[in-house]
Amino acid sequence: MVGQDTNENLENQVTPEELSELLKVRRDKLEKLQSEGKDPFKIVKYPVDTHTDEILNDFEGYESKDVVLAGRLMAKRVMGKASFCNIQDRNGRIQAYVSKNDIGEENYADFKKYDIGDIIGIKGFVFKTKMGEISVHAKEVVLLSKSLQILPEKFHGLKDQELRYRQRYMDVIVNPEIKEVFLKRSAVIREVRNILDEKGFLEVETPVLQTIPGGAAARPFITHHNALDIDMYCRIALELPLKRLIVGGFERVYEIGRVFRNEGIDLRHNPEFTLMELYQAYTDYNGMMDITEEIVREVAKRVNGRTTVKCGEHEIDLGKKFSRMTMVEAIKKFSGVDFEQINDTEEAKKIAKEKGVEFEERHVKGDIINLFFEEFVEKNIIEPTFIMDYPVEVSPLTKRKPDKPEFTERFELFIVGREYGNAYSELNDPIDQRKRFEHQEAMRAAGDEEANMIDEDFMTALEYGMPPTGGLGIGIDRRVRLITEQSSIRDVILFPTMRPLDK
Fold first, then answer.
1. Which H or E element spans position 422?
2. Which domains are assigned to the chain?
3. Exposure string (b/e) for 390-424, b if CB count within 10 Å is 16 or more?
4. Residue 227, SS3?
């Protein structure tokens, strides 16, 4: 069956006065039920034993079988002594046939007063109608929860994107395809865990509240601990606690958890997001490239059953070998500027002015190389590509390249102009690390609010000795967006950060 009750007005089809009256009618119905001793909110459980997809996918196995279902009433068509309705549970929708002869006159009269959006339970047997539709022939219908609000109809109702983000609970009710996105999100996280568990990694948990935010260039959120009377920070990365565990001898660790960055909101950024970081002793960034490629490819294969994904106008095959290119090579390819031939900061600033690349006075050659990459390269990388060997100035936690100490063994994975992973050969020299931190502190004093602070406990840990280690960070939300082919990170976060309505 299709459609809703013809007398069920939709929120966007009525005046505010009419809407107010419709909402009042629902509350009046609840009060009447309560006065008659039929308060649905006093029902504490219902013996559900079947879900809609089980019936729809195996009619032969369920034909004539008694079942108990429950879900939200999504459509109803009353026809005298018999009616049809649709209920929606966690796995889909199914039609039910309800007649006065089967459930009794009083119960049928109550059923006819049910509203779209009410939660109901149905006991009955499975059959096919004359039109061939798989249905449940109801022997009992019970009101389990009264809906006091009016559901928007799919094609005319909840289309305002911001409202959908604010009322995600409503979004997944009226737009089932949105629910599929979040089922896939769960599958992505599960498969990442499976892959890492298969490789002998240990999943751990590290503090969300930290006295020093570290592991990334980002502005933290600040809070205050009353008992200790100190400011604390919501973590911006997972890196430093995990590397402490490598020092402690765990060798292979990872964490999937929320991190928080006090930054803008756009198609690629949300102030809180889910990050996966892993660290493996006795390997380097080449080993991290291998595991990154495997995770990206395998998750797509296991979740979607294929390695191709649609990114805007591009179809990308994650099954192909990923390209590898140094940052300097990429800049030369897309801008024509060869930083191998530029000897110092003065020359770098001169060429930046010529090319219209904006920089700050405090920036040195390495910073300007990174600015060139952001200006000329990122948007032009379509196929999966590892961009390798970042300047030391923008990689304070990364080991230097032995043959080119002004660069580091770091890479980022780019697909269709977007970054999907960041990895290093981790810096384990405590003397070099302190110098890098001191440089970051100087940048912070010069006005860079995203520069790192010195974490003395982490420095002590390094002084005890950390083995050669590879580390990797992958943003789960961006990964899910790629797999589900969504355009915005907000489309894959159940409850994205929103400005309050009164602001």
1. strand 418-425
2. 11-154 (2.40.50.140), 176-322+383-492 (3.30.930.10)
3. bbbbbbbbbbbbeeeeebbbbbbbbbbebebbbbb
4. coil
Assess contact for 409 and 397: CB atoms under 8 A.
no
pTM above 0.70, yes or no: yes
Find, among 150, 128, 126, the residue nearest to 29 by Cα.
Answer: 150
The one-digit pLDDT tens for each residue of the chain (503 residues) are: 544 443 443 444 668 888 899 999 999 999 999 999 999 999 999 999 999 999 999 999 999 999 999 999 999 999 889 999 999 999 999 999 999 999 999 999 999 999 999 999 999 999 999 999 999 999 999 999 999 999 876 544 456 788 888 889 988 898 888 999 999 999 999 999 999 999 999 999 999 999 999 998 899 999 999 999 999 999 999 999 999 999 999 999 999 999 999 988 888 899 999 999 999 999 999 999 999 999 999 999 999 999 999 998 999 999 999 999 999 999 999 999 999 999 999 999 999 999 999 999 989 999 999 999 999 999 999 999 999 999 999 999 999 999 999 999 999 999 999 999 999 999 999 999 999 999 888 888 888 888 888 999 999 999 999 999 999 999 999 999 999 999 899 999 999 998 888 76
Q: How many CB atoms lie within 10 A of CB 319?
A: 11
